[in-house]
């Protein structure tokens, strides 16, 4: 049957990972994208409530003061939602899969050290690794059996999204997306804006409340809405503020969350560390690399021996595998 008799699909429609695609593959979310609704409510509900309360206070007392507070709150809220959207809706750095392992990697030879370990653990299957040099330091990279490729340095396979991802930091359930190479700057900005918004609402709610009576219990009774906002922001700022501080520490030392918990660079040399200023410059002022996938491109025909989005498989198709060449 001719391939023209069935409708061709785009790459995002047959993507083997667990991502969710919207608007024809233009927006890429994680499988837990619905959690963004919860995050949106947790940010939007107190922010909108605060804005409404400030708008009411504009007509009651100090119009100019509360108008400026209202404008500041609106700006911070818009920025926060913008960075949340940019973090959760873009390709974080997904690495295209191979259908088969690269030709040069199919050898089953193992080193003497691996043979010794294999004898000790019986038939346990050890992960394939190879050494690469990063800034003069040897780094081991692992072979991913799912994606059929050696992961680049700092890459990891996300079990939730089922993709290998460049410079993988972690999978964030609050934004429903992997945090990695292409969205980490936006994630840090999202955390920073969330922290500033919490502090902003907390401080100016206190000021507005104390401006009435100046006594804590009388204030709570007089304006329960602002009192609830103060308590909510006090609790929230410890969470988002703590995350912000932690990630700024990671930026200063040029680590990912995954590396910080797994490798403990404080006990051994970090091959990626360049100094605080260069680390910040690399993250916030360097151009974000383009996506390795064109999810809106047409998927290969079924009869083509090619995996979706795989550059390596195109080479295999063009030159053939050794087995195919021997049979010809």
TrEMBL record:
Protein's cellular compartments: Endomembrane system
Keyword terms: Acyltransferase, Membrane, Transferase, Transmembrane, Transmembrane helix
Molecular-function GO term, any one: protein-cysteine S-palmitoyltransferase activity
Transmembrane segments: 33-52, 64-86, 184-212, 224-250
Catalytic reactions on record: L-cysteinyl-[protein] + hexadecanoyl-CoA = S-hexadecanoyl-L-cysteinyl-[protein] + CoA
Broad class of where this protein is predominantly found: membrane
A Pfam family that the UniProt record links to this protein: DHHC
Keyword 4Fe-4S assigned: no
Biological process, per Gene Ontology: protein targeting to membrane
Residue ranges annotated for the Palmitoyltransferase DHHC domain, each copy included: 141-262
GO CC field: endoplasmic reticulum; Golgi apparatus
Membrane topology: Multi-pass membrane protein
Acyltransferase as UniProt keyword: yes
EC number(s) stated in the UniProt entry for this protein: 2.3.1.225
Database matches in InterPro entries: Palmitoyltrfase_DHHC, PFA4/ZDH16/20/ERF2-like
Family per record: Belongs to the DHHC palmitoyltransferase family.
Entry comment, domain topic: The DHHC domain is required for palmitoyltransferase activity.
Protein name: S-acyltransferase
The organism's taxonomic lineage, starting at the top: Eukaryota, Viridiplantae, Streptophyta, Embryophyta, Tracheophyta
